[in-house]
Amino acid sequence: MKFPNTLTALAAATFVLLPACSEGETGSEVPVEESSTATLATLVGDADGLSTLSDLLSDAGLQAMFDGSVPYTLFAPTDEAFAQFDLPLQGDDLRAARVAVIREHIVPGYLTLEDITAAAEAAGGSVEMSTMGSGTLTFTLEDDGILIASADGARARVDGTVMTGANGSLFPVDAVLKSAPAPE
Questions:
Q1: CA-CA distance, 183 to 65, in Å (whole number)?
Q2: What mean pLDDT is predicted for residues 45-49?
Q3: Residue 1: pLDDT above 60?
Q4: CATH for 6-21+31-173, among 2.160.10.10, 2.30.180.10, 3.40.50.300, 2.30.30.90?
């Protein structure tokens, strides 16, 4: 089932009144940190294993967006995930490609692990949500956790502690959710 935006997904999950899975029901215990008053920009900057993303957000001019009051959910590739991702570009083309890649990891709104699980359950095990880029992310409940897939086939899983801040949620993921463009 496809939801055109995050608010619709959350509304569907709320009106169906299905409880979210408790830890372990999907076969994986994802650690969730207590809510913080820090912004997403601060959470990314302070998190272990997200220095590449922090540098990219700063370089791309997106860090200010995560310091604002508008809520976002960021599926943050770890440093290890970025080490496996190759953008065969240079200069302005590289900067534009990095911004496009990062935008495919951002979902508007403040989502928790419980929100995503409940929306996927309400939709029969899988739910799509639109990104800030031009794509969608599909969240599928599996025995060993939630599989996150992009429209172009890239896949990731939560890899670390989910953090919530004053203006959104941060989910470290083990892969970049966008395929690298083929060199021309």
A1: 30
A2: 94
A3: no
A4: 2.30.180.10
